[in-house]
Amino acid sequence: MEHLDYDTLNTLKQVMEDDFALLIDTFVQDSNDRIQTLHNVIKGTEADLIRRAAHSFKGSSSNIGAPHLASLCSALEKKALANNLDGLADDLHAIEQEFVRVEVLLRSLS
Description:
Distance between the termini: 22 Å
Structural class: mainly alpha
Shape: elongated
Order of helices and strands: HHHHH
Largest sheet: none
Oligomer: single chain
Strand content: under 5%
């Protein structure tokens, strides 16, 4: 799966024009906050909090054109929905690694 959906990004770039770099900055900051939230909630046992945090990050990742990141968040969301809390730290590590790749690629576009 691709790290970025360039069709989505080109559309965003056309719509946002000069504010595209701000959109990227906002996504990166928001994503860092979401990752921190995920770190906090996976320490507990409240599957619904984990599910909601993963769902929210999935949506923003999809909107910015990061399909693999969205897919990883979706997998975490589904695990939490099934109340399967095993291996969440590994799942979050994969999300963080993909986010690093996505951030580098997005920064190269802005």
